[in-house]
Amino acid sequence: MTTVTTPGTIDPTTRKVPPLGGFNTTILGIELKRMLRNRRTIFFTLVFPAGLFFAFGGTKGWDDNAGHGNVAAYIMVSMALYGAALTAASSGAMVAMERALGWSRQLRLTPLSPVVYISIKAMVALVMGALAVVVVNTAGLVQGKPDMPVGRWVACGVLAVVCTLVFAALGVFVGYLVPGENAMQILGPGLALMSFLGNVFIPIDDHTSLIWHIAQWTPMFGVAEVTRSPLTGDLPWYAVVNAVGWLVVFVLGAAWRMSKDTARV
Amino acid sequence: MTQTQLSTTGARPSQVPAVSLSGVTKDFGAVHAVRGIDLQLQQGEIVAFLGPNGAGKTTTIDMVLGLSRPTTGEVSVLGLQPRQAIARGLVSAVMQTGGLVKDLTVRETVEYTASLFADSKPVDEVLENAGITEIADRKVAKCSGGEQQRLRFAMALLPDPALLLLDEPTTGMDVEGRRTFWSAIRRDAEQGRTVLFATHYLEEADQYADRIVLISKGLIVADGSGSEIRALAAGRSVRATLPDADVDRLAAIGGVDGVEVRGETVILHAKDSDAVARYLLTETDARDLEITSKGLEDAFLSLTGPHHDDAGDDQ
Protein backbone atom coordinates (compact mmCIF):
# COMPACT_ATOMS: atom_id res chain seq x y z
CA MET A 1 0.00 0.00 0.00
CA THR A 2 1.42 3.33 -1.03
CA THR A 3 -0.86 5.67 0.87
CA VAL A 4 0.73 8.82 2.18
CA THR A 5 0.25 8.77 5.92
CA THR A 6 1.40 12.27 6.79
CA PRO A 7 -1.28 13.37 9.24
CA GLY A 8 -4.12 15.20 7.62
CA THR A 9 -3.33 14.57 4.00
CA ILE A 10 -4.00 11.95 1.36
CA ASP A 11 -2.64 12.58 -2.08
CA PRO A 12 -5.16 11.32 -4.64
CA THR A 13 -2.56 11.33 -7.42
CA THR A 14 -0.72 8.37 -5.87
CA ARG A 15 -3.74 6.14 -6.48
CA LYS A 16 -4.03 3.96 -9.56
CA VAL A 17 -6.95 2.67 -11.57
CA PRO A 18 -6.87 -1.14 -12.05
CA PRO A 19 -6.31 -2.40 -15.60
CA LEU A 20 -9.06 -4.09 -17.68
CA GLY A 21 -11.90 -2.43 -15.79
CA GLY A 22 -11.19 -4.61 -12.76
CA PHE A 23 -11.19 -7.93 -14.58
CA ASN A 24 -9.10 -10.58 -12.86
CA THR A 25 -8.92 -14.35 -12.42
CA THR A 26 -9.72 -14.20 -8.69
CA ILE A 27 -13.33 -13.17 -9.28
CA LEU A 28 -13.68 -15.61 -12.16
CA GLY A 29 -12.47 -18.42 -9.88
CA ILE A 30 -14.75 -17.41 -7.01
CA GLU A 31 -17.77 -17.14 -9.35
CA LEU A 32 -17.12 -20.62 -10.77
CA LYS A 33 -16.60 -22.14 -7.32
CA ARG A 34 -19.86 -20.56 -6.28
CA MET A 35 -21.77 -22.11 -9.18
CA LEU A 36 -20.26 -25.53 -8.64
CA ARG A 37 -21.34 -25.77 -5.01
CA ASN A 38 -24.90 -24.63 -5.72
CA ARG A 39 -27.02 -27.79 -5.52
CA ARG A 40 -29.78 -26.45 -7.73
CA THR A 41 -27.32 -25.51 -10.46
CA ILE A 42 -25.63 -28.88 -10.24
CA PHE A 43 -28.98 -30.63 -10.59
CA PHE A 44 -30.01 -28.63 -13.65
CA THR A 45 -26.55 -28.73 -15.20
CA LEU A 46 -25.44 -32.26 -14.60
CA VAL A 47 -28.39 -34.42 -13.61
CA PHE A 48 -31.43 -33.10 -15.43
CA PRO A 49 -30.21 -32.99 -19.09
CA ALA A 50 -28.50 -36.38 -18.73
CA GLY A 51 -31.71 -37.78 -17.25
CA LEU A 52 -33.71 -36.39 -20.17
CA PHE A 53 -31.29 -37.99 -22.58
CA PHE A 54 -31.66 -41.37 -20.89
CA ALA A 55 -35.45 -40.96 -21.00
CA PHE A 56 -35.67 -39.99 -24.69
CA GLY A 57 -32.44 -41.33 -26.18
CA GLY A 58 -33.40 -45.00 -25.97
CA THR A 59 -36.91 -44.82 -27.38
CA LYS A 60 -38.15 -46.84 -30.33
CA GLY A 61 -36.35 -46.08 -33.57
CA TRP A 62 -33.13 -44.88 -31.89
CA ASP A 63 -31.06 -46.79 -34.40
CA ASP A 64 -32.75 -45.20 -37.46
CA ASN A 65 -30.53 -43.24 -39.75
CA ALA A 66 -30.21 -39.48 -39.13
CA GLY A 67 -27.79 -37.68 -41.42
CA HIS A 68 -24.27 -38.92 -40.74
CA GLY A 69 -25.30 -40.80 -37.62
CA ASN A 70 -28.36 -42.21 -35.87
CA VAL A 71 -31.44 -40.86 -34.07
CA ALA A 72 -29.88 -41.46 -30.63
CA ALA A 73 -27.03 -39.15 -31.62
CA TYR A 74 -29.57 -36.56 -32.82
CA ILE A 75 -31.37 -36.70 -29.46
CA MET A 76 -28.09 -36.54 -27.54
CA VAL A 77 -26.98 -33.39 -29.34
CA SER A 78 -30.39 -31.78 -28.77
CA MET A 79 -30.36 -32.62 -25.06
CA ALA A 80 -26.81 -31.31 -24.67
CA LEU A 81 -27.94 -28.02 -26.22
CA TYR A 82 -31.01 -27.85 -23.98
CA GLY A 83 -28.94 -28.57 -20.85
CA ALA A 84 -26.35 -25.99 -21.83
CA ALA A 85 -29.02 -23.38 -22.62
CA LEU A 86 -30.80 -23.94 -19.30
CA THR A 87 -27.55 -23.75 -17.35
CA ALA A 88 -26.30 -20.68 -19.18
CA ALA A 89 -29.61 -18.87 -18.80
CA SER A 90 -29.75 -19.58 -15.07
CA SER A 91 -26.12 -18.44 -14.65
CA GLY A 92 -26.99 -15.22 -16.48
CA ALA A 93 -30.11 -14.78 -14.37
CA MET A 94 -27.93 -14.68 -11.22
CA VAL A 95 -27.74 -10.99 -12.07
CA ALA A 96 -31.35 -10.68 -10.88
CA MET A 97 -30.52 -12.17 -7.47
CA GLU A 98 -27.44 -10.02 -7.09
CA ARG A 99 -29.38 -6.89 -7.90
CA ALA A 100 -32.05 -7.81 -5.36
CA LEU A 101 -29.37 -8.33 -2.70
CA GLY A 102 -27.71 -4.98 -3.43
CA TRP A 103 -24.50 -6.72 -4.54
CA SER A 104 -24.49 -4.93 -7.92
CA ARG A 105 -24.78 -1.64 -6.04
CA GLN A 106 -21.89 -2.66 -3.81
CA LEU A 107 -19.82 -3.48 -6.88
CA ARG A 108 -20.59 -0.03 -8.29
CA LEU A 109 -18.57 1.31 -5.35
CA THR A 110 -15.48 -0.51 -6.65
CA PRO A 111 -13.49 0.05 -9.86
CA LEU A 112 -15.26 -2.95 -11.48
CA SER A 113 -16.84 -1.80 -14.74
CA PRO A 114 -20.40 -3.00 -15.40
CA VAL A 115 -19.32 -4.39 -18.78
CA VAL A 116 -16.64 -6.51 -17.10
CA TYR A 117 -19.16 -7.71 -14.51
CA ILE A 118 -21.48 -8.92 -17.27
CA SER A 119 -18.60 -10.41 -19.25
CA ILE A 120 -17.60 -12.46 -16.21
CA LYS A 121 -21.19 -13.65 -15.82
CA ALA A 122 -21.18 -14.63 -19.51
CA MET A 123 -17.88 -16.52 -19.15
CA VAL A 124 -19.16 -18.42 -16.13
CA ALA A 125 -22.35 -19.21 -18.06
CA LEU A 126 -20.26 -20.54 -20.96
CA VAL A 127 -18.12 -22.72 -18.70
CA MET A 128 -21.21 -24.12 -16.98
CA GLY A 129 -22.86 -24.67 -20.38
CA ALA A 130 -19.77 -26.53 -21.57
CA LEU A 131 -19.96 -28.69 -18.47
CA ALA A 132 -23.57 -29.59 -19.29
CA VAL A 133 -22.54 -30.49 -22.84
CA VAL A 134 -19.73 -32.73 -21.55
CA VAL A 135 -22.06 -34.47 -19.11
CA VAL A 136 -24.73 -35.26 -21.70
CA ASN A 137 -22.15 -36.46 -24.22
CA THR A 138 -20.52 -38.62 -21.57
CA ALA A 139 -23.96 -40.05 -20.78
CA GLY A 140 -24.29 -40.83 -24.50
CA LEU A 141 -20.93 -42.59 -24.56
CA VAL A 142 -21.78 -44.61 -21.46
CA GLN A 143 -25.17 -45.60 -22.85
CA GLY A 144 -23.55 -46.59 -26.15
CA LYS A 145 -26.51 -45.98 -28.47
CA PRO A 146 -25.55 -42.66 -30.17
CA ASP A 147 -23.44 -43.19 -33.23
CA MET A 148 -21.69 -40.68 -35.48
CA PRO A 149 -18.14 -40.03 -36.73
CA VAL A 150 -15.84 -38.71 -33.98
CA GLY A 151 -15.05 -35.47 -35.82
CA ARG A 152 -18.72 -34.62 -36.26
CA TRP A 153 -19.42 -35.62 -32.66
CA VAL A 154 -16.79 -33.15 -31.38
CA ALA A 155 -18.02 -30.46 -33.80
CA CYS A 156 -21.59 -30.81 -32.44
CA GLY A 157 -20.29 -30.45 -28.87
CA VAL A 158 -18.26 -27.33 -29.66
CA LEU A 159 -21.18 -25.74 -31.55
CA ALA A 160 -23.49 -26.43 -28.60
CA VAL A 161 -21.11 -24.52 -26.32
CA VAL A 162 -20.84 -21.60 -28.76
CA CYS A 163 -24.64 -21.43 -29.14
CA THR A 164 -24.92 -21.32 -25.35
CA LEU A 165 -23.89 -17.66 -25.58
CA VAL A 166 -27.35 -16.80 -26.94
CA PHE A 167 -28.95 -18.09 -23.74
CA ALA A 168 -26.34 -16.57 -21.44
CA ALA A 169 -27.33 -13.23 -22.99
CA LEU A 170 -31.02 -14.09 -22.61
CA GLY A 171 -30.43 -14.94 -18.93
CA VAL A 172 -28.72 -11.61 -18.27
CA PHE A 173 -31.47 -9.75 -20.15
CA VAL A 174 -34.26 -11.41 -18.18
CA GLY A 175 -32.19 -11.00 -15.00
CA TYR A 176 -32.24 -7.24 -15.49
CA LEU A 177 -35.89 -7.22 -16.57
CA VAL A 178 -37.41 -9.31 -13.80
CA PRO A 179 -36.55 -8.82 -10.13
CA GLY A 180 -35.16 -11.43 -7.76
CA GLU A 181 -35.99 -15.10 -7.91
CA ASN A 182 -38.77 -14.64 -10.47
CA ALA A 183 -36.23 -14.51 -13.28
CA MET A 184 -35.61 -18.26 -13.19
CA GLN A 185 -39.31 -19.00 -12.80
CA ILE A 186 -39.84 -17.31 -16.15
CA LEU A 187 -36.76 -18.72 -17.84
CA GLY A 188 -37.36 -22.39 -16.88
CA PRO A 189 -40.79 -22.84 -18.52
CA GLY A 190 -39.85 -20.33 -21.22
CA LEU A 191 -36.86 -22.39 -22.31
CA ALA A 192 -38.90 -25.60 -22.27
CA LEU A 193 -41.47 -23.96 -24.58
CA MET A 194 -38.72 -22.62 -26.84
CA SER A 195 -37.20 -26.09 -26.96
CA PHE A 196 -40.49 -27.65 -28.07
CA LEU A 197 -40.89 -25.00 -30.75
CA GLY A 198 -37.22 -25.15 -31.67
CA ASN A 199 -37.26 -28.79 -32.65
CA VAL A 200 -35.19 -29.80 -29.65
CA PHE A 201 -37.56 -32.21 -27.88
CA ILE A 202 -39.82 -33.44 -30.66
CA PRO A 203 -38.99 -33.02 -34.35
CA ILE A 204 -41.61 -31.01 -36.23
CA ASP A 205 -41.66 -32.97 -39.46
CA ASP A 206 -44.46 -31.30 -41.39
CA HIS A 207 -42.73 -28.31 -42.96
CA THR A 208 -46.02 -26.90 -44.30
CA SER A 209 -47.76 -26.73 -40.91
CA LEU A 210 -48.51 -23.49 -39.08
CA ILE A 211 -46.44 -24.60 -36.09
CA TRP A 212 -43.41 -25.04 -38.34
CA HIS A 213 -43.79 -21.52 -39.66
CA ILE A 214 -44.01 -20.14 -36.13
CA ALA A 215 -41.20 -22.36 -34.88
CA GLN A 216 -38.76 -21.01 -37.45
CA TRP A 217 -38.88 -17.61 -35.75
CA THR A 218 -38.28 -18.83 -32.17
CA PRO A 219 -34.88 -18.47 -30.44
CA MET A 220 -34.11 -22.18 -29.98
CA PHE A 221 -34.78 -23.10 -33.60
CA GLY A 222 -31.70 -21.54 -35.18
CA VAL A 223 -29.16 -22.67 -32.62
CA ALA A 224 -30.58 -26.21 -32.66
CA GLU A 225 -30.18 -26.43 -36.45
CA VAL A 226 -26.67 -24.96 -36.23
CA THR A 227 -25.61 -27.30 -33.43
CA ARG A 228 -26.88 -30.41 -35.24
CA SER A 229 -25.55 -29.39 -38.65
CA PRO A 230 -22.37 -31.55 -38.43
CA LEU A 231 -24.64 -34.55 -37.81
CA THR A 232 -27.41 -33.73 -40.27
CA GLY A 233 -25.03 -32.37 -42.90
CA ASP A 234 -27.58 -29.65 -43.53
CA LEU A 235 -27.38 -25.99 -42.50
CA PRO A 236 -30.27 -23.86 -43.79
CA TRP A 237 -29.41 -20.14 -44.17
CA TYR A 238 -32.50 -19.07 -42.23
CA ALA A 239 -31.28 -21.07 -39.21
CA VAL A 240 -28.01 -19.11 -39.16
CA VAL A 241 -29.91 -15.84 -39.51
CA ASN A 242 -32.20 -16.91 -36.67
CA ALA A 243 -29.28 -17.77 -34.34
CA VAL A 244 -27.30 -14.60 -35.04
CA GLY A 245 -30.46 -12.47 -34.95
CA TRP A 246 -31.52 -13.68 -31.51
CA LEU A 247 -27.97 -13.31 -30.15
CA VAL A 248 -27.97 -9.68 -31.26
CA VAL A 249 -31.46 -9.10 -29.80
CA PHE A 250 -30.55 -10.56 -26.40
CA VAL A 251 -27.15 -8.86 -26.18
CA LEU A 252 -28.65 -5.48 -27.10
CA GLY A 253 -31.53 -6.06 -24.69
CA ALA A 254 -29.13 -6.90 -21.84
CA ALA A 255 -26.92 -3.90 -22.67
CA TRP A 256 -29.94 -1.60 -22.77
CA ARG A 257 -31.30 -2.77 -19.42
CA MET A 258 -27.84 -2.66 -17.90
CA SER A 259 -27.25 0.95 -18.93
CA LYS A 260 -30.66 1.91 -17.49
CA ASP A 261 -29.80 0.07 -14.30
CA THR A 262 -26.40 1.67 -13.76
CA ALA A 263 -27.83 5.10 -14.44
CA ARG A 264 -30.30 4.64 -11.61
CA VAL A 265 -28.68 2.41 -8.95
CA MET B 1 -35.35 29.65 3.93
CA THR B 2 -32.22 31.04 5.50
CA GLN B 3 -29.28 28.77 5.87
CA THR B 4 -27.58 29.02 9.21
CA GLN B 5 -23.92 29.16 8.28
CA LEU B 6 -21.57 28.61 11.17
CA SER B 7 -17.83 28.36 11.32
CA THR B 8 -16.49 25.05 10.10
CA THR B 9 -14.35 23.26 12.59
CA GLY B 10 -11.05 21.55 11.90
CA ALA B 11 -10.90 23.01 8.41
CA ARG B 12 -7.62 22.97 6.51
CA PRO B 13 -8.63 24.97 3.47
CA SER B 14 -5.20 24.83 1.81
CA GLN B 15 -5.87 21.23 0.71
CA VAL B 16 -8.14 19.84 -1.94
CA PRO B 17 -11.52 19.41 -0.24
CA ALA B 18 -12.50 15.78 0.37
CA VAL B 19 -15.98 16.54 -0.91
CA SER B 20 -17.18 19.59 -2.75
CA LEU B 21 -20.78 20.20 -3.78
CA SER B 22 -21.69 23.44 -5.47
CA GLY B 23 -25.20 24.40 -6.43
CA VAL B 24 -26.25 20.75 -6.50
CA THR B 25 -29.87 19.91 -7.22
CA LYS B 26 -31.51 16.60 -8.02
CA ASP B 27 -34.99 16.12 -9.41
CA PHE B 28 -36.85 12.85 -9.81
CA GLY B 29 -39.54 13.83 -12.25
CA ALA B 30 -41.61 16.46 -10.46
CA VAL B 31 -40.03 15.76 -7.07
CA HIS B 32 -37.20 18.07 -6.04
CA ALA B 33 -35.21 15.79 -3.75
CA VAL B 34 -32.24 18.15 -3.46
CA ARG B 35 -32.90 21.85 -3.97
CA GLY B 36 -29.48 23.41 -3.99
CA ILE B 37 -26.67 22.28 -1.75
CA ASP B 38 -23.28 23.93 -1.36
CA LEU B 39 -21.00 21.98 0.93
CA GLN B 40 -17.28 21.47 1.36
CA LEU B 41 -15.77 18.82 3.59
CA GLN B 42 -12.09 19.21 4.44
CA GLN B 43 -9.77 16.23 4.66
CA GLY B 44 -9.74 14.60 8.05
CA GLU B 45 -13.12 15.93 9.15
CA ILE B 46 -15.71 13.69 10.77
CA VAL B 47 -19.06 15.02 9.67
CA ALA B 48 -22.54 13.90 10.67
CA PHE B 49 -25.27 14.20 8.11
CA LEU B 50 -28.53 14.67 9.94
CA GLY B 51 -32.03 15.05 8.69
CA PRO B 52 -35.48 13.49 8.76
CA ASN B 53 -36.45 10.80 6.24
CA GLY B 54 -36.92 12.19 2.78
CA ALA B 55 -34.69 15.19 3.52
CA GLY B 56 -32.37 14.31 0.66
CA LYS B 57 -29.54 12.68 2.64
CA THR B 58 -29.44 9.46 0.62
CA THR B 59 -29.83 11.31 -2.68
CA THR B 60 -26.90 13.54 -1.79
CA ILE B 61 -24.74 10.60 -0.68
CA ASP B 62 -25.57 8.75 -3.92
CA MET B 63 -24.31 11.72 -5.91
CA VAL B 64 -21.07 11.84 -3.89
CA LEU B 65 -20.65 8.12 -4.63
CA GLY B 66 -21.24 8.68 -8.33
CA LEU B 67 -24.28 6.39 -8.28
CA SER B 68 -26.40 9.18 -9.70
CA ARG B 69 -25.69 12.49 -11.38
CA PRO B 70 -26.93 15.85 -10.14
CA THR B 71 -29.61 17.56 -12.23
CA THR B 72 -27.60 20.76 -11.94
CA GLY B 73 -24.40 21.69 -10.12
CA GLU B 74 -21.02 20.08 -9.59
CA VAL B 75 -19.90 17.27 -7.32
CA SER B 76 -16.23 16.50 -6.83
CA VAL B 77 -14.39 14.15 -4.53
CA LEU B 78 -10.75 15.02 -3.77
CA GLY B 79 -10.78 17.17 -6.88
CA LEU B 80 -11.94 14.28 -9.08
CA GLN B 81 -15.22 13.21 -10.62
CA PRO B 82 -16.92 10.79 -8.18
CA ARG B 83 -16.53 7.83 -10.58
CA GLN B 84 -12.82 8.55 -11.03
CA ALA B 85 -12.36 8.70 -7.27
CA ILE B 86 -14.17 5.35 -6.91
CA ALA B 87 -11.99 3.76 -9.61
CA ARG B 88 -8.90 4.82 -7.63
CA GLY B 89 -10.18 3.30 -4.42
CA LEU B 90 -10.44 6.72 -2.77
CA VAL B 91 -14.04 6.37 -1.66
CA SER B 92 -15.78 3.61 0.25
CA ALA B 93 -19.25 3.34 1.69
CA VAL B 94 -20.81 1.09 4.27
CA MET B 95 -24.53 0.60 3.90
CA GLN B 96 -26.69 -0.66 6.71
CA THR B 97 -28.26 -3.56 4.86
CA GLY B 98 -27.68 -5.62 1.74
CA GLY B 99 -24.63 -5.47 -0.44
CA LEU B 100 -23.55 -9.02 0.36
CA VAL B 101 -23.90 -12.30 -1.50
CA LYS B 102 -25.23 -15.00 0.80
CA ASP B 103 -23.55 -18.04 -0.72
CA LEU B 104 -20.02 -16.65 -0.58
CA THR B 105 -17.88 -17.11 2.51
CA VAL B 106 -16.61 -14.13 4.47
CA ARG B 107 -13.08 -14.64 3.12
CA GLU B 108 -14.30 -15.05 -0.48
CA THR B 109 -16.28 -11.83 -0.22
CA VAL B 110 -13.20 -9.94 0.99
CA GLU B 111 -10.93 -11.59 -1.62
CA TYR B 112 -13.42 -10.78 -4.37
CA THR B 113 -13.56 -7.13 -3.37
CA ALA B 114 -9.79 -6.86 -2.78
CA SER B 115 -9.06 -8.20 -6.28
CA LEU B 116 -10.94 -5.29 -7.86
CA PHE B 117 -8.64 -2.53 -6.61
CA ALA B 118 -5.26 -1.58 -8.06
CA ASP B 119 -3.89 -1.44 -4.51
CA SER B 120 -5.47 -3.24 -1.63
CA LYS B 121 -4.51 -4.06 1.92
CA PRO B 122 -3.75 -7.76 2.50
CA VAL B 123 -6.94 -9.79 3.00
CA ASP B 124 -5.70 -11.46 6.19
CA GLU B 125 -4.78 -8.15 7.77
CA VAL B 126 -8.20 -6.69 7.01
CA LEU B 127 -10.01 -9.77 8.34
CA GLU B 128 -7.90 -9.55 11.51
CA ASN B 129 -8.56 -5.84 12.02
CA ALA B 130 -12.29 -6.34 11.56
CA GLY B 131 -12.23 -9.23 14.06
CA ILE B 132 -13.67 -11.74 11.60
CA THR B 133 -10.70 -14.09 11.13
CA GLU B 134 -12.48 -16.83 13.10
CA ILE B 135 -15.54 -16.72 10.84
CA ALA B 136 -13.60 -16.29 7.58
CA ASP B 137 -14.78 -19.63 6.20
CA ARG B 138 -18.40 -19.15 7.20
CA LYS B 139 -21.03 -18.45 4.55
CA VAL B 140 -22.35 -14.90 4.70
CA ALA B 141 -25.90 -16.29 5.08
CA LYS B 142 -24.86 -17.87 8.41
CA CYS B 143 -23.38 -14.67 9.84
CA SER B 144 -25.24 -12.56 12.38
CA GLY B 145 -26.19 -8.98 11.59
CA GLY B 146 -23.24 -7.68 13.58
CA GLU B 147 -20.82 -10.02 11.81
CA GLN B 148 -22.17 -8.94 8.43
CA GLN B 149 -21.67 -5.32 9.45
CA ARG B 150 -18.04 -6.03 10.38
CA LEU B 151 -17.61 -7.72 7.01
CA ARG B 152 -18.97 -4.62 5.24
CA PHE B 153 -16.42 -2.56 7.15
CA ALA B 154 -13.60 -4.90 6.22
CA MET B 155 -14.60 -4.53 2.55
CA ALA B 156 -14.80 -0.74 2.81
CA LEU B 157 -11.34 -0.45 4.35
CA LEU B 158 -9.60 -2.67 1.76
CA PRO B 159 -8.54 0.18 -0.59
CA ASP B 160 -7.56 2.47 2.34
CA PRO B 161 -10.13 5.08 1.27
CA ALA B 162 -9.61 8.81 1.74
CA LEU B 163 -13.35 9.29 2.13
CA LEU B 164 -15.62 6.93 4.00
CA LEU B 165 -19.41 7.26 3.86
CA LEU B 166 -21.40 5.48 6.53
CA ASP B 167 -25.13 4.92 6.71
CA GLU B 168 -26.32 4.59 10.31
CA PRO B 169 -22.98 2.97 11.22
CA THR B 170 -23.57 1.83 14.78
CA THR B 171 -27.13 0.56 14.60
CA GLY B 172 -27.35 -2.62 16.63
CA MET B 173 -24.00 -2.08 18.41
CA ASP B 174 -23.84 -2.01 22.18
CA VAL B 175 -22.32 0.93 24.06
CA GLU B 176 -18.89 -0.69 24.25
CA GLY B 177 -18.93 -1.62 20.55
CA ARG B 178 -19.94 1.89 19.65
CA ARG B 179 -17.09 3.40 21.66
CA THR B 180 -14.51 1.03 20.14
CA PHE B 181 -15.88 1.77 16.69
CA TRP B 182 -15.65 5.51 17.05
CA SER B 183 -12.17 5.47 18.51
CA ALA B 184 -11.03 3.48 15.46
CA ILE B 185 -12.75 5.97 13.14
CA ARG B 186 -11.15 8.87 15.00
CA ARG B 187 -7.68 7.28 14.64
CA ASP B 188 -8.16 6.97 10.88
CA ALA B 189 -9.40 10.55 10.60
CA GLU B 190 -6.16 11.70 12.17
CA GLN B 191 -4.39 10.07 9.23
CA GLY B 192 -6.41 12.27 6.93
CA ARG B 193 -9.44 10.10 6.24
CA THR B 194 -12.65 12.05 5.93
CA VAL B 195 -15.76 10.44 7.36
CA LEU B 196 -19.31 11.44 6.49
CA PHE B 197 -21.98 9.54 8.36
CA ALA B 198 -25.75 9.62 8.29
CA THR B 199 -27.35 8.94 11.61
CA HIS B 200 -30.49 9.54 13.58
CA TYR B 201 -28.68 9.11 16.86
CA LEU B 202 -28.43 12.81 17.57
CA GLU B 203 -26.32 12.19 20.64
CA GLU B 204 -23.91 10.20 18.55
CA ALA B 205 -23.58 13.02 16.07
CA ASP B 206 -23.01 15.46 18.92
CA GLN B 207 -20.46 13.23 20.64
CA TYR B 208 -18.36 11.98 17.74
CA ALA B 209 -18.68 14.37 14.82
CA ASP B 210 -16.50 17.45 14.42
CA ARG B 211 -19.25 19.00 12.44
CA ILE B 212 -22.96 18.46 11.96
CA VAL B 213 -24.70 19.24 8.71
CA LEU B 214 -28.43 19.44 9.14
CA ILE B 215 -30.47 18.90 6.02
CA SER B 216 -34.19 19.33 5.58
CA LYS B 217 -36.33 19.29 2.44
CA GLY B 218 -33.32 19.18 0.16
CA LEU B 219 -31.52 22.14 1.71
CA ILE B 220 -28.85 22.57 4.36
CA VAL B 221 -30.55 24.29 7.30
CA ALA B 222 -27.59 24.33 9.68
CA ASP B 223 -23.91 23.54 9.57
CA GLY B 224 -21.65 23.65 12.59
CA SER B 225 -20.44 21.88 15.72
CA GLY B 226 -22.91 20.15 18.06
CA SER B 227 -22.93 22.99 20.58
CA GLU B 228 -23.39 25.58 17.83
CA ILE B 229 -26.38 23.68 16.48
CA ARG B 230 -27.83 23.40 19.97
CA ALA B 231 -27.43 27.12 20.54
CA LEU B 232 -29.53 27.81 17.46
CA ALA B 233 -32.60 26.55 19.21
CA ALA B 234 -32.14 28.83 22.19
CA GLY B 235 -34.12 28.33 25.35
CA ARG B 236 -34.26 26.12 28.41
CA SER B 237 -36.72 23.94 30.21
CA VAL B 238 -37.74 24.64 33.78
CA ARG B 239 -39.18 21.69 35.63
CA ALA B 240 -40.82 21.87 39.04
CA THR B 241 -43.21 20.05 41.32
CA LEU B 242 -46.33 22.18 41.61
CA PRO B 243 -49.65 20.58 42.63
CA ASP B 244 -52.79 22.14 41.16
CA ALA B 245 -50.88 24.32 38.72
CA ASP B 246 -52.78 27.08 36.99
CA VAL B 247 -51.72 26.54 33.40
CA ASP B 248 -53.11 29.80 32.06
CA ARG B 249 -51.29 31.85 34.66
CA LEU B 250 -48.02 30.01 34.01
CA ALA B 251 -48.34 30.46 30.27
CA ALA B 252 -48.79 34.18 30.80
CA ILE B 253 -45.30 34.59 32.34
CA GLY B 254 -43.12 36.65 30.02
CA GLY B 255 -41.04 34.58 27.60
CA VAL B 256 -42.75 31.21 28.18
CA ASP B 257 -43.15 29.24 24.92
CA GLY B 258 -44.96 26.24 26.29
CA VAL B 259 -46.35 24.61 29.42
CA GLU B 260 -46.67 20.89 30.04
CA VAL B 261 -48.37 19.38 33.07
CA ARG B 262 -47.61 15.78 34.03
CA GLY B 263 -49.43 15.00 37.25
CA GLU B 264 -47.84 17.20 39.90
CA THR B 265 -44.93 18.14 37.64
CA VAL B 266 -44.94 21.18 35.38
CA ILE B 267 -42.43 21.77 32.60
CA LEU B 268 -42.08 25.24 31.16
CA HIS B 269 -40.12 26.01 28.01
CA ALA B 270 -38.75 29.51 27.99
CA LYS B 271 -36.07 31.74 26.54
CA ASP B 272 -35.55 33.53 29.87
CA SER B 273 -35.45 30.68 32.35
CA ASP B 274 -34.28 32.92 35.20
CA ALA B 275 -37.45 34.97 35.11
CA VAL B 276 -39.56 31.81 35.13
CA ALA B 277 -37.61 30.33 38.04
CA ARG B 278 -37.89 33.55 40.00
CA TYR B 279 -41.63 33.67 39.43
CA LEU B 280 -42.19 30.02 40.37
CA LEU B 281 -40.22 30.24 43.61
CA THR B 282 -41.65 33.56 44.77
CA GLU B 283 -45.24 33.56 43.52
CA THR B 284 -46.19 29.85 43.70
CA ASP B 285 -45.64 26.78 45.90
CA ALA B 286 -43.29 25.20 43.35
CA ARG B 287 -40.42 23.10 44.69
CA ASP B 288 -37.72 20.72 43.39
CA LEU B 289 -36.87 23.21 40.65
CA GLU B 290 -34.66 21.97 37.80
CA ILE B 291 -33.36 23.97 34.83
CA THR B 292 -32.00 22.18 31.75
CA SER B 293 -30.88 23.44 28.38
CA LYS B 294 -32.67 22.01 25.40
CA GLY B 295 -31.04 18.99 23.85
CA LEU B 296 -29.78 18.56 20.36
CA GLU B 297 -33.00 16.78 19.61
CA ASP B 298 -35.02 19.91 20.30
CA ALA B 299 -32.65 21.89 18.12
CA PHE B 300 -33.05 19.31 15.41
CA LEU B 301 -36.82 19.43 15.60
CA SER B 302 -37.04 23.18 15.66
CA LEU B 303 -34.67 23.52 12.70
CA THR B 304 -36.28 20.85 10.55
CA GLY B 305 -39.83 21.32 11.80
CA PRO B 306 -42.85 22.54 9.87
CA HIS B 307 -42.33 26.26 10.53
CA HIS B 308 -39.26 26.07 8.29
CA ASP B 309 -41.57 24.98 5.55
CA ASP B 310 -41.59 28.13 3.46
CA ALA B 311 -39.48 26.56 0.69
CA GLY B 312 -41.57 23.40 0.49
CA ASP B 313 -44.38 24.88 -1.59
CA ASP B 314 -44.43 22.64 -4.66
CA GLN B 315 -44.24 19.17 -3.12
Describe it for me?
- The complex is a heterodimer of chains A (265) and B (315).
- Chain A is built from 11 helices and 2 strands.
- In chain A, strands 1-2 form a two-stranded antiparallel sheet.
- In chain A, 71% of the residues lie in helices and 2% in strands.
- In chain A, helix 3 (71-92) runs antiparallel to helix 6 (114-143) and helix 4 (94-100) packs parallel to helix 7 (150-177).
- Chain A starts with 24 loop residues before the first helix and ends with a helix.
- Chain A is elongated.
- Chain A has 265 residues and is mainly α.
- Chain B has 315 residues and is α/β, with parallel strands linked by helices.
- Chain B is built from 11 helices and 14 strands.
- Chain B has helices at 57-64, 82-87, 106-114, 123-129, 145-157, 175-190, 202-208, 226-232, 247-251, 273-283, 296-304, and strands at residues 4-5, 19-28, 31-41, 46-50, 72-77, 91-94, 163-167, 194-198, 211-216, 219-224, 236-241, 256-262, 265-270, 287-293.
- In chain B, strands 1-10-9-4-8-7-6 form a 7-stranded mixed sheet. Chain B has a 4-stranded antiparallel sheet with strand order 12-13-11-14. A 3-stranded antiparallel sheet of chain B has the order 3-2-5.
- In chain B, a hairpin with a 2-residue loop joins strand 2 and strand 3.
- The longest helix of chain B is centred in the middle third of the chain and has 16 residues, at 175-190.
- The model of chain B is unreliable at 1-13 and 307-315 (pLDDT under 50).
